[in-house]
Design brief:
7 helices, 6-stranded parallel β-sheet, 208 residues, alpha/beta
Amino acid sequence: MSASLPYVLILYYSRQGATRAMAERLAAGVESLRGIEARLRTVPPVSPTCEAVDPEIPEEGAIYASLDDLRHCAGLAIGSPTRFGNMAAPLKHFLDGTSELWLGGALIDRPATAFTSTSSLHGGQESTLLTMLVPLLHHGMVYAGLPYSEIELMETSSGGTPYGATHLAGKRSDRPLDEHERHLAQAQGRRLARLALALAAMPRGDRS
C-alpha cells in the first residue's frame, strides 16, 4: 500500500466469512480506479466476560481497525451480518467509540456506504443497511447507495438493494456470492472510490 495515495476504509465484521467475501469484492471495485487504494480492516468480537481473551492481531484476515484508520480515510464502507435487522454488536461497539472524531468533524463530507449478509432472503437486509447509515449521517458523511444504472439490481434473485450491496448466505451461511452479488459489491466499491476522489479534490471551504 502506498503511503501517499488516499484510501477507502472497508470496515467489516464477519463470523462465517460471507461479509468478509463482500468486503473483498468492494476492495476490488475501489482498486479498479487509479489514484486510490482500499484498506481492509475488521473489528474484534464483543466478549461477555470482563477480561480480554482475544489476541491483539487476528489469526487470519484483516487486522483490527483503529480510530486513525477512520480519521484519515477518503471514504468509508461498513459491512456486517444482520442481527435482528441491525448491525452486529462488534461493529456497533466500534462505531460507538468514535465520539472524538464526531466532536472534531473529522468525517464531514466524506462518502460512505454499507453492505450486509443474511441467512434468509427476507432476513432484514434493507433494515440493516438503513440502520447502519444512521451513525454515518451523524458524522456528517455523504451516503452513497447503488443506483439502478446497475442493471443487476433488477435481475438479482438473491442479494442487492439500492441502499447497498447484500448477500444471501443461506441457512448454513455457506452459500458463496453469486454473479449478481459480486458485480453489485464491486460496483459499490467503484462508486465509493469515484466519489472519494471527487470530494477529496474539492476545497473544504466549498463544501459548506
